[in-house]
Design goal:
Blueprint: H1 4-17, E1 20-25, H2 30-33, E2 38-40, H3 42-51, E3 56-60, H4 63-72, E4 77-80, H5 95-104, E5 109-113, H6 118-121, E6 126-128, H7 133-139, E7 144-148, H8 151-160, E8 165-168, H9 181-190, E9 195-198, H10 204-207, E10 212-213, H11 216-225, E11 230-234, H12 238-246, E12 251-254, H13 269-277, E13 282-283, H14 288-304
Helix pairs in contact: 1-13, 3-4, 4-14
Bound molecules: 1,3-dihydroxyacetonephosphate and iron/sulfur cluster.
Length: about 300
């Protein structure tokens, strides 16, 4: 039997021996962060996916993130840490639905949150992530934008880019929409000196009350660089723990105890161990046609997002 520390040491040894790059989304647990080569938000992970030099890339996150790695690095073996880790938002809209919506809205540029399937990306014009969406939408020449699937993120983008005509559909993250104005009122009452930092996947009435809105990495950077000492965190609750490690002299409180993404939490350190040993995870396979068509919209994101 291994202790956590021994298992981590073994993972670090095996990833070098077997030429594996470990990418972890910020919502992964701290024991996984400690063995990863890179930890970040969805945009940072896409950039790293294109840069990794190792033969195998292990994505500790959810399926669309591993697919993004495969799209950007087709020559690599790409593993998803736990085959059951999907993103419910990515499954909300499919090619059939969006093809119909496109027919009803000719002349619109289709902007897809990166939390979508590879199949859906093939019929979209550009991808965005929470940290790049505002800049990318500003940089699109067309005034008419169809933003899918997250209407909360889309609403937040529309507020900041009022010169665009942004059409939204009713999709969203089931984890972030759990946080309510009641949660904000209760947290503000319990921690009157704390700043409220929220992710734009939250409901508009929640983001409206925040002191800062931004991606997972944006929230972490803001808290680290701020002179304030207390923060209420309105995103997946693992960020509360990571920030507490990063800033032991500050205090972090979850906006809601229910903001837990069960898909992100599926991956265990044991899964990572099996993957670097070569006996775990799921190898991501995409047809050339899907990969090439989906790549156009990720490449456009990486260009417009710079
Ligand atoms: P970011 O990592 O871009 O902040 O997105 C959050 C999220 O919910 C990822 O699935
Ligand atoms: Fe999907 Fe939301 Fe979980 Fe992110 S937090 S993986 S958007 S369900």
């Amino acid at each position: 039997m291994f202790t956590t520390r021994e298992l981590q040491d073994e993972i670090i040894r095996l990833k070098k021996e077997n030429d594996v790059c470990i990418l972890a989304h910020a919502y992964q647990s701290h024991d996984i962060w400690e063995v990863a080569d890179y930890v970040g938000d969805s945009y940072g992970l896409s950039q790293q996916a294109a840069k990794a030099t190792q033969k195998t890339v292990l994505m500790c996150g959810v399926r669309f993130m591993a697919e993004t790695v495969k799209i950007l690095s087709p020559e690599k073996k790409v593993l998803l840490s736990n085959p059951n880790a999907g993103c419910p938002m990515a499954e909300q809209m499919d090619v059939e639905l969006i093809s119909q919506v496109k027919e009803m809205n000719p002349g619109y540029t289709v902007v897809a949150y990166i939390n979508t399937t590879s199949e859906l990306k093939t019929i979209c014009d550009v991808c965005v992530t929470s940290s790049s969406a505002v800049q990318i939408v500003k940089n699109i020449e067309n005034k008419n934008i169809l933003f899918i699937p997250d209407c909360n993120l889309g609403h937040w983008v529309a507020e900041q880019v009022p010169e665009k005509n942004i059409k939204l559909l009713q999709g969203g993250c089931p984890t972030h929409v759990r946080m309510s104005v009641k949660d904000v009122e209760a947290a503000r009452k319990a921690h009157p000196d704390a700043l409220l930092l929220v992710h734009p996947e939250c409901l508009p009435e929640v983001t409206a009350k925040a002191d800062y809105k931004g991606s997972t990495t944006g929230i972490m950077d803001y808290a680290k660089n701020s002179n304030a000492k207390e923060f209420i965190i309105g995103t997946e609750n693992s960020i509360v723990q990571h920030l507490q490690f990063a800033c032991p002299d500050k205090k972090f409180y979850p906006l809601s105890k229910d903001c837990v993404c069960h898909n992100m939490k599926l991956t265990t350190l044991g899964d990572v161990y099996d993957c670097v040993k070569g006996i775990g995870g799921e190898e991501i396979e995409l047809s050339d046609e899907i990969r090439e068509k989906a790549k156009r919209c990720i490449d456009t994101m990486l260009t417009l997002g710079q």
